[in-house]
Amino acid sequence: MTMPRRRPVHLGPRSLAALALVSAVGVIAFGWPFLAPPTSALNAHSQDAPWLFAGLLVLLVAVVAATISESGLGAKAVAMLGVLAATGAALRPIGAGTAGIEPMFFLMVLSGRVLGPGFGFVLGSVTMFASALLTGGVGPWMPFQMLAMGWFTMGAGLLPGGDRLRGRTELALLAAYGFLAAFAYGTAMNMAGWPFMGALASGVAFDPDGTVPANLARFAAYCVATSLGWDLGRAVVTVLLTLTLGPAVLRALRRATRRAAFETAVTFEAPWKGSEGR
Question: Rounded mean pLDDT of the chain?
């Protein structure tokens, strides 16, 4: 019989509402070039939008705080969050500038799978924030990276069969998710930066006066020209590491989760109880 998974972070009503809010704002922040009509005032400020949408960071902090406070995140879960976030942040610079070799992504997939969507969202956001501080990558793009990585890691926790699916079938599922999600992450980050190219590349840049189909064609050309190779490298590395190191990492994470016993309440027995009746 397979024991149900323990979750260090539960998504209660308040956390779900905060997550839905930040996700809705995130969708607008990433996809506004395709949502705003050509006559929209937002298009007139397309070069200022990164700073406007950098306010997402405030919402991200709020949703993380709401998740932690509502779930009663204990010391053991905080310790695991710190260890995994530090490990992910340390892995990110390894392949920086080398054809998408980013081993951090496979760790996020496996961690989200074992520890659940709530912990996954917190872990993805915190890891990206820590890695930005480590690599000096702090800028208006950081809130977008935090949100995209939070979605990436949370998605792994929402995959089916978490309590019963094991072995090669589970690895194949995680590898397929990692492959697709690596492209989705790259596409999302392209959407965050593409509208602000201006006249640097007129053939593929965002056209504030263009129609949605025309801008979709420009965006597709931009992705192929600038990031397809990088995203493919990220996806392939994620698949290879999941298939080779995945079994050992999954066992280690599940063993640590069982030993941590996140859902076991800590109780203290009064010292005089043992002497009653003597």
Answer: 77
